[in-house]
Amino acid sequence: MPHVLIVDDDDAVRQMIVRLLRSHGYETETASDGAEAFALIRQRRPCLVLLDIKMPVMDGWEFRRRQLEDPALTDVPVICMTGVVHPQDVGRKLGIPCLGKPVDFPSVIRAVEKFCRPPAS
């Protein structure tokens, strides 16, 4: 079953996305900061990382930098999530797609389906 790693320091946001993805048949895993997420993707490779940008300990910028420096992880797809006015500008700087916050459920599902094989019905 495809699994998605959801990285956000806001527990309510994490749980909202978990419920959404699980209702569509996806397995989920969560992390509250980039350092925790980095450790998790080294243990179990997700089909996609949904990555908040502004977080304590290790923010999304640092997570992405470290990910790109690790040859074993560079091809793990990442989509950022941010509350800035122009999320596409952040995404362009990171070299990845970026969703605005508050997250739009249909956009999240479309993004996940683009990178993760939909679960069998």
Keywords:
121 residues, alpha/beta, 5-stranded parallel beta sheet, globular
Q: Could you give the topology of this structure?
A:
Layout: E1 3-7, H1 11-23, E2 27-31, H2 34-43, E3 48-52, H3 60-69, E4 78-82, H4 87-94, E5 98-100, H5 105-115
Helix pairs in contact: 2-3
Briefly say what this structure is.
The chain is α/β, with parallel strands linked by helices and 121 residues long. The protein has five helices and five strands.
Explained architecture:
By secondary structure, the chain is of the alpha/beta class. The protein has a single domain (3-115), classed as Rossmann fold (3-Layer(aba) Sandwich), CATH 3.40.50.2300. The protein has five helices and five strands; from the N terminus they run βαβαβαβαβα. A five-stranded parallel β-sheet has the order 2-1-3-4-5, with helices on both faces. Helix 2 runs parallel beside helix 3 (60-69). It is globular and about 35 Å long. The model has no long low-confidence stretch (mean pLDDT 89).
How many structural domains in the coordinates? 1
What does the overall shape look like? globular
What is the assembly state of the chains in this entry? Answer: single chain
Main beta sheet strand tally, sense and closure: 5 strands, parallel
- In percent, how helical is the residue content? 40-55%
Strand content: 15-25%
Give the CATH topology: Rossmann fold
**How many whole angstroms does the radius of gyration measure?**
13 Å
The assigned structural class equals alpha/beta
